[in-house]
Amino acid sequence: MTIRYFNIFMNHLEKMQFEVAAASFEEQAGAEEGRPEVYDCNRALLVTGGSGLLHMDDRSFSMDAGTFSILLAGKAHWIEPSPGETLSYWWCHFRASYADRALYQAIGLPEHVRIPDPSEAIAMFARIRGCLFSQQPSARLRIKTSFMELIGIYIDYFVADSGRRASLSPEFEKLEIVLSYVEEHLADTITVEHLAGLIFLHPNYFIVFFKGLMGCSPIQYVNQRRLEVARTLLADPACNVSDAAARIGMKIYYFSRMFKAYTGLTPSRYKKLVLGLGAGGAKDEAGGAESPKKEGTET
């Protein structure tokens, strides 16, 4: 998975809200008479033992211990254990605020990943089931936290499987051209007009196009990436604050203000805390009276 594709994926995932409706553990020793099941909720399945097939529409794929699948609501499917075997698996049904199925499919997420050691994921499923029946005030929060851990595991193994590069739709292919350019030119002046020209769109339409797919404006995305890169740079003892600002194309005064708004800390204070050098005595690095740039078409 490329960094551009990952950014597309994460920008959408970070805006999603999840609600787990049910969860349980099952053992199945025979096919359910080949009858497809359709659920109103999305479904997560984690196989813990045995082997079999998951049939969907006109295709099937094998399942064994460590197979983790996420199926969209309304997708007909049925499970067929291998002859003479018992297939054991955890499942949970969940709803997501992400209602645009076409956009979800356009991102190209796989329906399953394989986890060599599923013990952590099994623990999350078990915790979710336990919390569903709990009367503790924190139960709903713990369910959400555990489910997000499951999604995190899914993402980690999806990203690690470099042989399964997702196939993007034409719209996302265009977007990846833009994101690739941004990634390679963070130290340069980047304008909306130039980004729009990369994919032959009018700037006004490009802003709408970009925000519809990424959930933020082009300028917001560029600044977010710059600050994310700066945060990593500041964790390097060999990179000082001025170097970090220069490598992301920002004047130091503007960089200090934006970084503090982003992290709640000035760059020098953040660097000291990350490197374990103590928190006292850090001054703001705004070395000059230059005013920050206004939000606009250039960054």
From TrEMBL:
The keyword Transcription regulation applies. Gene3D superfamilies: Homeodomain-like. This is AraC family transcriptional regulator. Residues 176-273 form the HTH araC/xylS-type domain. SMART domains: HTH_ARAC. Residues 280-299 are annotated as: Disordered. Residues 282-299 have a biased composition (Basic and acidic residues). The keyword Endoplasmic reticulum does not apply. Transmembrane segments: none annotated. InterPro entries: AraC-bd, Homeodomain-like_sf, HTH-like, HTH_AraC, HTH_AraC-typ_CS. Pfam families: AraC_binding, HTH_18. Keywords: DNA-binding, Transcription, Transcription regulation. Coiled coil: none annotated. One of its GO terms (molecular function) is sequence-specific DNA binding.
